[in-house]
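Dear Dr. V.,

Thank you for agreeing to look over these. As mentioned in my earlier message, I'm a first-year student in the group and I'm still getting used to reading structure tokens, so any feedback on how I've presented them would be very welcome. I ran two proteins. I've put each sequence directly above its structure. The first is here:
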Amino acid sequence: MEYDLIIIGAGPAGLTAAVYAGRGGLNTLVLERMSAGGHAAMTDAIENYPGFPDGISGSDLAGYMEKQAQKFGASFKTIVEVTQLEHGDGIFKIKAADDTFIAKSVIVASGADPTKLNIPGEGKLIGRGVSFCAVCDGAFFKGATVAVIGGGNSAIEEAIYLTRFVKKLYIIHRRDRFRADKILTDRMLSHPGIETIMENVVEEIIGDNAVSAVRLKNVRTGEEKTVGVEGIFIYAGYRPNTDFLKGIIALDEVGCIVTDAEMATTVPGLFAAGDVRAKGLRQVITAAGDGATAAYWAQKHIENLENRQYGEFKS
């Protein structure tokens, strides 16, 4: 079956795109490697999404988005891992393990996975003190002692942001100097609530039902020590899910998709939205905005192909 639009990924960007595409009258299919919601669905509470003054769980928000997209006609296929994308003669072929899907236009909203430390305690304590986003979760650590892992701009920026909530903050970095810009590093070093622990790596995150400490190892001396913390924010980078696009469209140095303001890539009819896109702020609300924009311009692309107009986008 050929679709007007296929959306790869059912996180906030893909789900919003599906809502807009469905309302615009496009025959839309959403492919998702796991279940709808992406990483947002694993967040216990989202307090900065407009319209929910008391907050909402990520799974509930994702469920509402999915239901809304289905209401407007979008179809979903989950547990589908896209392995290849081909383009030619005005159509796209999307290949998965056992299927090939065809569409006139594609929105890639496959997201990005935070790089994990792959150490004991990390996996079981994600969402229980282990976080990869200070903007998302910082407010839950008011008056707490936390650690930030990393030495680049993201780590330092997020550490400075966290000081508005936490009582004490450690920055743990494996090198003897920070990679972040000097202005950020100077600002961080001048803050009285921040203590740096250099030339150390985290060997283990300790805790039963919540983070209680981290075990560190000095990379130069081999000395180990335990530091008590109630939260740990990991900034070892992000890995965008774009392996199936290499050699097809323009990617930046870390593999994120380069787009213009219309979410268009270097291939006509191929758009990108959300965390997979090269951008500065990765939040549920910005992903939703990307998805709406991508769906709008995907519809315009299809209309130009067929010289006909679909349903109007309504506010």
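The second protein is here, in the same arrangement:
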Amino acid sequence: MMIERMAVELGLPEAFIYAVARGASHAYKVYSVPKRTGGRRDICHPSRVLKGLQRWLLRGVIENLPVHAAATAYIRGRSIMDNARVHVASRYLLRMDFTDFFPSITQVDIARYIADHSVFFKDWNPADIDVFCSIVCRNSALTIGAPTSPALSNAICYEMDTLLQTLGASNHALYTRYADDLFFSTVHPGVLKNVEASVPEIIRNLKLPANLRINAAKTRHSSKRGARHVTGITLGSDGFAYVGRAYKRKIRALIHKVDSLDGPRRASLAGMIAYTTGLDPQFKNSLIEKYGLARVHKAMSGAG
């Protein structure tokens, strides 16, 4: 049973775990950060105790769940460069994304996922499921800031990724997903309009997650005639992928506020710096000149 194993491995009384789970939604520090496109986004930072339980669930349960090959975010060994390279030989690119991705994945979705994939949750009883859902959710939904949200969202989106990859293949297009960003690319003109028209219906009819919705205002088509960008990576007309200026600006902005970043965002920043400096070694020197060696090393460590 999950609760019993958690108690033994963490050296905690089961009653304590139940108590943390009951009050989990109130154990967050909530603050907002500006969105790049305007407005603000709430970040919910869990208390140290709650985060400790979440990290145990992440390592002991969630990271063992299957994730589709088309998903490239929050996965050890995969990066935004891997996501971009899939599309580098294309001529046409379609980008779509979701409205409120994490909060759209609810406790009902998680419980249904557990029921449908019981082989990964052997010997779990209803109390285990309730405690798991309470610990990984805030107000009955995933939240930005919990270390469990990224990996759990990937697992729950497996069916969606399968259907969208099939949609792409049937239109001679390639598909990847980086968090809430969907990318389709092809060498054939005209086919991505068909893909764009089909995606919302697939999303509406999903069993899991049941409440995702496409943010139509952010849908973008691009081609080799102009600039093609995939998660901050520029797809060059020469068939190579490059780190774009906008992505480097994002890294600098995150380093500037590194002390306020939670664990997942620090880990993400460390990954961003690692692959960027791998392609452009001089970029690290420019960061050190601007922010100092100690601050850059802190950003590169990924420690929460």
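From my reading of the second output: The two ends are 29 Å apart (CA to CA). The longest strand covers residues 28-34. Does that match how you would interpret it?

Kind regards,
E.
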